[in-house]
Amino acid sequence: MTDSYRHKGLRKRLVDTLRKRGISDEAVLAALLAVPRHFFLDNAFAEHAYEDKAFPIGNEQTISQPFTVAYQTMLLDVHANDRILEIGTGSGYQAAILAALGARVYTIERQEDLHLASKDLLQKMGFKTIQCFFGDGTKGLADFAPYDKIIVTAGAPVIPDALKVQLMIGGSLVIPVGESVQYMHHIKRLAAGSYQTEVLEACRFVPFLEGVQKR
Ligand code: SAH
User: Which of 9, 79, 82, 207 is the most buried (most CB within 10 A)?
Assistant: First the structure.
């Protein structure tokens, strides 16, 4: 795997496009500039890694579109040393972006194949602040709770209570909610039993499913 000047140039162009499309958080854009997205794609799609598109990563799943990754990350408002739970590791790209922003990332994936592949890749790339787990993220990841932030990268028919209660007071959850089309939800935990919900843009994600799929 190499990250050439050409790749860096393409990445710069992608970041300029995202800025024009309304991503105003320069720290998020710097993270997208730093992380080579082509490492996270199958060779067949690597050529297209710097187009603002989602691509298949196997097992009927997709790596999210760069705009979506930037948008969800911007909503999370990541600070150095935030402890962040990501549901839906997929390719590992979103986890890498969070780590590039200085977060400590716990990421969980329900498909064992994808879990093993992304764990291996992130390790090879030298990410020491990302821990990968195989399991059903509808239950969150209680062992390491509470989290400063939680991000869900699959479309959820309903918001699992387990995720809300694994947030710190003052923490927030970014989750696309809905069946075929979802609306991004930004939920803040104000006090033990008090949450504030903001409903944002329409978006489209692969489904958030219960249970696990072994290889
Ligand atoms: N963040 C990923 C996006 C992958 S697509 C990336 O950057 O590439 C969403 C992923 O969520 C898929 O891999 C899917 O298998 C996973 N997923 C769906 N439901 C899940 C659940 N209940 N627990 C954990 N992962 C889940």
Answer: 82
Q: Where are the domains of the chain?
A: 54-203
Give, in words, the CATH class of 54-203: alpha beta
Q: Give the residue among 115, 110, 144, 114 at the shortest CA–CA distance from 132.
A: 115
pLDDT in tens, 20-54: 999 999 999 999 999 999 999 998 888 899 999 99
Ligand 1 nearest-atom number relative to CA 111: 15
Question: 138 C-alpha vs ligand 1 centroid, how far in Å?
Answer: 11
Which atom from ligand 1 is nearest to the alpha carbon of 40?
A: 8
Tell me which residues of the chain have a pLDDT lower than 70. none
- 64 catalytic residue (yes or no): yes
How high is the pLDDT of residue 1? 81
- pLDDT at res. 180: 83
